[in-house]
Amino acid sequence: MNNKKRPTIATVAQHANLSVATVDRVLNARAPVNPDTAQKVHEAAEAVGYFAARLISQRINEKKPAYHFGFLLLGTSQTFYKTLSDAIVEQAREARAANIVCHVKLIHDRAPQSIARQIHQMAEHCDCIALVSFEHPLVIEAIEQVRQQGVPVVSLLTELPTRQPGAYVGTDNHEVGRTAGWLIAHGSHPAGGSVAVMLGGHRFLGHEQREAGVRSFFEEKAPQFRVLPPIVTLDNGAITEEATLDLLARHSDLRGIYVAGGGVEGVISALAATPQRPPMCVILQEPTVESRQAMRKGLVTLVIDSQPRLIAKELIELMVQLPGAEQIDPQRHRVLVPLQIVTPENI
Asked: 121 by DSSP, 3-state: which?
């Protein structure tokens, strides 16, 4: 005969270090309970094997607000956006403060009118929108219009110059650029030389800010280095490869390459095809299988990681706050995620 006692409310309360009354309020929905406390009760109920653990979970979900959140991400072959998309869905599923339905759409047609149309379509059924986009008057106008309709919009990864300060989640891109500059200055010949920066495009303000950060660092801290005019690659591997080969052919004093956006596979291919090249510091944006392999082979020096999983966590936490908010707080609703540096030693 099994003499093991069946867990009771008191067992759950003891395990959660809460009162029996608090557990009872969660179980029977007798009065409002802090969401974190309710979650603590549920975790304790599952841990001790309380028979009503599933009911407690149901009670918690019944009390949560329900939201439909829209996400417009760039439709590229970059692993980064797949990682970000998966992380957003995962964080939404695990959110304690709300029941969230995610609507993730990709921007394949980068024509401004097409992006504006996608923004309006998403606003028809979403309580809040987060998007990655370049700057264009039509895109900005669409954002302003849906905001006036009561749908908050969060700029993701790159800030957009709307008339009123908007919500933002991502890295401080100017800081990212200055960090890349510092790394090149300390990872290449101290006598200086040429430094190249590759951008996805001039209207992608995050890339522009990174390039400006690189340039400002060298002007202030290491003037022996000369930053070349930025190279636009459209995040395309073939264009990036051709640009890298051209740089290696024309600049014998090339000391550093920083790819501020995508198309990094092109740089890797060009470097692999040019074994007789001057020593230089090569920095890529976002770790991938290819960039890790390139670091192991000595083709790439460092990779800057924007931490997409942490970005997703901060994004969901922010978006839950925005529906019904009277206005955007330029400080509280601007979330900067710290970058990480990936080296061959911490891959």
From this structure: helix
